[in-house]
Design brief:
Chain lengths: 132, 89
Amino acid sequence: MAFTMRAVKVPPNSASLEEARHRVFDFFKQACRSIPTVMEIYNLEDVVTPAQLRSSIAKQIRQNQSITNPKVIDMLLFKGTEELNNIVEHAKQRHHVIGQYVIGEQGLLQETGSKDQASSEFLKKFYTSNYF
Amino acid sequence: MGPVRHGKQETIEKVCEIVKNQLALAEGTTVTGETKFVDIGADSLDTVEIVMGLEEAFNITVDESSAQEIQTVDDAAALIDKLVSEKDA
């Protein structure tokens, strides 16, 4: 059982924030383009749509959007690329992918639209994240 | 052949639809050919995400340099029309 590891050469550090930004977008595009493969591998057709996967990837990228140090960004990109490689080469299992990217804090992302009508706006924001 | 900056109406409408869904805009928000992505609250990551959504919907691949040029809905529609016709050629 050989893991077909993609080349894990670490590219030199980004020279500037601008270059790091480009790398983030390239990574995001690469991830989006692997979405059909991922859906095929883990049989996610009935569970989630590609658009939802795209937005959960974007959500994770956006969590770090305020970082200004290019080296930190490179490190985060390295971790992201590693995660993407793991998922695409089927080193993860279906429940990992579903738990991490399909189900949000409150259950399946597409089904939770109408549940929390009683709670206030403040509480909704409070439950989703620390920063609002 | 000069630069084609206007997309077909049908393409523009489809793009508007995808953009509205992507950015979760309120029902009454008007999105037209001239609407710039930044004006409707899309940051750069949103723009890339919209371009990827368009890639999927129209079954095309947008390269890096063309993606940089996209500022308005019309730019996106024009690029889509160009890529679709190149694909079918």
